[in-house]
Amino acid sequence: MRFIRGSIHEYKNEGFIPRFNSFFVHGGSEGMYASKVHNNGSTEDKPINGKSFVRFESIIFRRPKEVAAKQNEMQQSTGLVEAILVEVKNRDKIGGSYLNSNAICCTPELANDGSCKVGEVIIRQDPDNPGWPKRIQTPFEGKNEEAKMLLQTVEINRTGMYYLYFMFCDPQLKGTTMSGRTVWRNPNGYLPGKMTPLMPFFGFMSLTYLILGLLWFLRFVQHWKDIIQLHYHITMVIGLGMCEMALWYFEYANFNATGSRPIGITLWAVTFSAFKKTFSRLLLLVVSMGFGVVRPTLGGVTLKVLLLGLIYFVASEALELVENLGNINDFSGKARVFLVLPVALLDSCFILWIFSSLSKTLEKLQTRRNMGKLELYRKFTNALAVSVLVSVAWISYELYFNASDPLSELWQRAWIIQAFWAVLAYILLVVICILWAPSHNPTRYSYSEVEDIEEDGISLSGENDALSLLLLFSRKYNQMYEWHHHHHQSSKK
């Protein structure tokens, strides 16, 4: 099994896979930016900042004992393994496709015209980039079971998506395994190219959440006497957002500096991210149900809401763990598709329930003729509808992007996919903060028993006019009392 820690790709007894007339191990694939500083000579004892490279460290190839025993002890090379580093756009230069052959390794027939050597992988050089695709050969000597690859560094001088393969052509080497590691570094650190722009992005998002948190806190303190329970939920979402973005920035900064991801920090970041996503969706749902605005509690649906939230948290956590603790290659794996589907299905459940609840809440507010709250919920519904339409459009673009880029050649733009969802969630949170901002007039959005009495009064008016008038009088009296009490408090201040 191969363990990959960020840009340090580790190989633990990897077995070579047959393909056409060759055997190979996929050593990694990452987007790489060109070096900002170029060496004129050796890479030893020189600073690595500004350089982009792939370094081969402690790579050892082991062939079966019976294979080694059959060799001539005096022969210098009794087997050959090649490390081939190629830019994805030049993948057609590997193998015999340009010779109208499926062969990857050179055969005696193909060697007749001098275009390749028997026993080696066929490589056609890139005229625009001399020396590429890069080939590094490691021979087995005599009857040795092991062949050690020399410690060396390949500098990257052209921006692109690079693939690394370890290959051999000799069928007698079947059963050979490899161990060791390769270190991939970009000019500004060890972050893979696809992830590099996300570090400053998370830093920027941390700042935006901090600014939102400060503004909300000032408003919260200013009107602390008029705070309702919903305000505490909004505060929690802002706090979770601040922690999530700060943790991701710290995780990426550490990853960039060391080349590996500390499991502890990554787990915290993943958990905060999953919890914040879940809590944000639950906030949207309870707001849509009119919690604290047209109803004091969620009543019988509380358990259903919590159950949906728990299932979503588990599914979201599993997806985030696979994405951030699994294979770090910039070439996306297919395994995550099976975890994306449950999350997408649960998101659909949330959307349907939210809009169904909004419809009932708007209907109830129209019945009560509470124009202030009705206008508030109409604005919220419009904002939510726009966000859903934008989300659907973006998902369509994401599907098109992934389908049209199977080899991750558009890796430099891939970070925008992840960044979009963070920005959309932030914008929705800002909209909720504006609509439900604490104020000296909490009755414009807070729940009032008077409205329930009024609604009951309207339903009874046909049966008992006297009772209806009494309820109406009671309502007017309560409104006058509330206004007088509020006015008295304001004059004291």
UniProtKB/TrEMBL annotation:
It is a multi-pass membrane protein. One of its GO terms (cellular component) is Golgi apparatus. Pfam families: GOST_TM. The chain crosses the membrane at residues 198-218, 230-250, 282-315, 335-355, 376-395, 415-437. This is GOST seven transmembrane domain-containing protein. It is found in: Membrane. It comes from Lactuca virosa. Coiled coil: none annotated. Its main location: membrane. It comes from the Eukaryota. Keywords: Membrane, Signal, Transmembrane, Transmembrane helix. Residues 197-442 form the GOST seven transmembrane domain.
